[in-house]
């Protein structure tokens, strides 16, 4: 079916989407995203109207299919960005869309396509949104998108939210940092994780401290880091201490 869509003209794909029974439309939308031909993406662009109150499930299906596409194209990211740009969207559609943008940016960069105009626009969309976000749930969504993108250039932003942000934002930022390969976990990142784990500047939630300890233990830990984490377990509740002791054993 995907092969058929790849050779179909825009008007044929559009006709298929319009005439299909409601229960089969999500399948066709998914297949059209997978086809990623100029015609199938143009048909999707015309068919999906994000400004209307049409079935949210269909719009979410499109965004999920885009986010999970194994080898997305710049055109697919362009389509997602255009559908999100400047529209009043239902909260769940906006959230899924922003996280999908991060996923597409990350996969395009893995394909050595970081220089694409669409990728730069996607990164700027996320960073601009993060700078302007005032509510914690909104900040968390943008941080999730950065976690999906896994761009080394965003590590300073993630560190800032990890150390200074409220609980949910800090946890999300540290989780995003865990997705980076060891070569990007620099001494600066490790110093920040030590401050969080040992609560040098302020108190952190248990999940933040554990995630910070995991980054230290999973990325060429120094003997002193291991010793200090083991010493810290003496003052922790049993469950947290046991978790960290198992982590230390695994890293050894």
Question: What would your notes on this structure say?
Answer:
With 252 residues, this protein is mainly alpha-helical. It has a domain at 153-251. Helices cover 71% and strands 0% of the residues. The protein contains 15 helices and no strands. The chain has helices at 2-6, 10-19, 25-35, 38-47, 56-67, 74-84, 91-110, 117-132, 136-149, 155-164, 167-177, 187-197, 206-218, 223-232, 238-251. Helix 9 runs parallel beside helix 11 (167-177). The longest helix has 20 residues, at 91-110. The chain starts with a helix and ends with a helix. The mean pLDDT is 93.
Rg from Cα? 21 Å
Q: Total number of helical segments?
A: 15
Number of strands: 0
Percent strand = under 5%
The low-pLDDT segments are none
Intertermini distance: 50 Å
**Helix vs. strand class:** mainly alpha
- Helical content, roughly? over 70%
What is the chain-wise order of helices and strands?
HHHHHHHHHHHHHHH
Query: In this structure, how is the largest beta sheet organized?
Result: none
Mean pLDDT: 93
Overall geometric form: elongated
């Amino acid at each position: 079916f995907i092969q058929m869509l790849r050779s179909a003209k825009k008007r044929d794909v559009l006709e298929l989407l319009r005439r299909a029974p409601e229960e089969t439309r999500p399948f066709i939308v998914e297949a059209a995203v997978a086809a990623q031909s100029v015609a199938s993406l143009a048909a999707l662009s015309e068919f999906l109207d994000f400004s209307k109150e049409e079935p949210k499930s269909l719009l979410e299906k499109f965004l999920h299919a885009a986010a999970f596409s194994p080898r997305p194209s710049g055109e697919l990211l362009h389509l997602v960005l255009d559908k999100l740009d400047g529209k009043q969207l239902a909260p769940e559609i906006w959230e899924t869309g922003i996280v999908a943008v991060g996923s597409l940016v990350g996969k395009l960069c893995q394909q050595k396509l970081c220089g694409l105009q669409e990728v730069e626009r996607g990164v700027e969309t996320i960073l601009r949104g993060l700078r302007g976000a005032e509510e914690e749930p909104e900040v968390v969504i943008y941080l999730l998108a950065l976690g999906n993108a896994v761009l080394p250039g965003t590590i300073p932003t993630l560190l800032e939210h990890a150390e200074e942000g409220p609980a949910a934002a800090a946890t999300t930022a540290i989780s995003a940092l865990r997705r980076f390969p060891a070569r990007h976990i620099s001494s600066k990142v490790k110093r920040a994780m030590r401050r969080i784990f040992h609560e040098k500047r302020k108190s952190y939630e248990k999940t933040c401290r554990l995630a910070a300890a995991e980054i230290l233990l999973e990325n060429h830990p120094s003997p002193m880091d291991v010793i200090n984490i083991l010493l810290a377990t003496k003052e922790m509740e049993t469950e947290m201490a046991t978790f960290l002791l198992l982590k230390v054993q695994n890293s050894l």
